[in-house]
Amino acid sequence: MTEAVKKGRSPLNLIIQKLTLKKISSFLFLTLILLGSFKANAQTREDLEKRRFEIIQQIDDTNELLNLTAKNKKVLISDLAIIDTQINNRKKLLEQIQKEIDLIDRDISINDSLRSEKVIRIDSLKDQYHIVLRAVYRERTLHNPLVALLSAKSVSSSFLKANFYNRLKQYVGEKLKVINDEQYLLDQKIANLNDDKDQKREVLQQVEKQSALLANEQARQKVMIASIQEDESTLKKTLDEQKKDREQMNVQIENVIKSKFTEGIASTTVSNFESLKGKMAWPVNGGVVSSKYGKQQHPTMKNLTISNNGIDIRAPLNAQVSAVFEGKVVSVSQMSGFGTTVIIDHNQYYTVYSKLQTATVSKGDEIKIGQNIGVLAVNDDSSELHFEIWNENKTQNPMSWLKG
Asked: What phi-psi label fits residue 355: left (phi over 0), alpha (psi between -120 and 50 degrees) or beta?
């Protein structure tokens, strides 16, 4: 009996150990790494697809708003701001789709490498399998079983050899089946990834086409706005009136804030308003910002700057307006140029909702987060909410507070 057998290490065990360490282990190690990358990439792709669908929803909402005012020249300036937003969303969508395609390309490359590695392993196992079969056949035909039985040593040796080859054949056969099964699954995965890539390319082509059409619309809008600039005196008069309305509104809001204490209508609820910064729900659904916060250049007059203490949100006609946080109504009034206006106190912070057709709340009412407080008015075939956030007597940028 050989030294290896005495120590409990049969020739089969030694060969299997050698194959495993030198060949199979490296293959399995590579397989685990690559399969792990599939899981990581799948999660990333899910995130990208979710973001893509969110952008598509924003584009759909904006399209609906643009269609409402497609024939109304009175709202061209606000339409231009919305179209700019639409083009930016299209570009974001293109970037998202390209990221998904890049990940799919990487997955396909990894899958192809893994499949090639499996083909090599399968060929190697087939060669080993055939060698084993030939060796077993040769042993059975060249050695006389009767002679082997006359010698204890021969019987023992024959038994060990037969057992060795049978176990090795079984081992190789099992591995061959496993790898064949894995290759089938891998081929299916690659086929699915190729289908995904084709779909993404189709979507990319559609978005590029729509983005180009939207850019043309923007160019046409600018031409139409240029025609409005010809009547500069009328435009300046309108802007002066809007400026006076904003100044008057600021005074009214400041007076409301000052008077709430003397009238005893201040909210006594402890507010966690600041905890929702960047996470607040929008006061209207399906809206698009048509005018940003702060000072900015007028879109049609280069030498003129306009100021906005809040943001203007173009929304569906007669859209319902909701409170962004719980609090107490401290004012419901009519403001020149801003229509019905509701002011809610949130302890130190205040939210202002203007351009309402009607208010469904009254001064002194306790308001819950998300509660309906009114309906937007319709002017020139469009509805637009003017929304402000104040911290005592200082305005805040609502975009820093709203979600997304």
From this structure: left
